[in-house]
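Worked problem 6 (solution included).
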Amino acid sequence: MLWSRYGALFLMLAGLASAAVADDAAPPPPSMPSPITDHFALRGIYFLGHVATTGHVDPGNGFSGTNFNAEQLLGLTDEVYQPRIEIMFRLEQRGRLRVNFFDLRRNGATVLGNQFQYGDETFQYGDRLLSSFNWRQMDLTYTYSFLRTDHFELGAGAGVHLIEADATVAVPSTPNRTEFSGAGPFATVALDGTWAISQRWAISARAQYLNLSIGSLSGTLADYHADAQYRWRRNMAFGLGYERSQAQLVVRDEDPSGVLRLTIRGPEAFVRVSF
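Solution. The predicted structure is:
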């Protein structure tokens, strides 16, 4: 009886030990799904923004063109209601590559109430003007997360922005037409952070800024963004955010030359699919 009891105790201890070994060998439970653990994410965005376009386009005689607000002077809409896309790739554990696209195209028509010097053309009071202002931009931003935990991530890096802008003003059925354009790559310094508050909620924010000159072109680009998202399913989230972007393009030693400034700001709603 004694040996049988010792035998039963030994078998029970052996069973407990084997169960402990099995638990140690089992894979760890999956981490909490959040923007910190996602390896790929696609955000489908609807942006409800407003834009302000200011600047001047100078003639080749060394004088300055008329300072203008394109929305007020040329009848361009100040609304930027459009869908947008953002893609995020995680490189290893701490690297992130974000890709953004932005395409703003506007046309306006107005009758001038004052004389308007735009490049080498002088538009007179009463002229009927047709105008177009286009801004196309693709952003590639890489950040390295020097701080990364289950609930916090903070990274720093750099962005490359491919920008093309053109602004045309013309009097229909006449040769009075001037076009101002510029294109080139620009760079920014980037800071990007995420706070995973819980399994469902997360807050993200980022800031990018730099002033850069390349040849006859110089530009200033600043972008600030913040959003809050709710994780409805493991691979899908919904959220609201706010973005403010400021861009300035300066063209020197050209005919025409000048300055074009663009400020875009407003809220957004988005769906985020990730894994």
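Discussion: Confidence is low (pLDDT under 50) at residues 1-14, 16-27.
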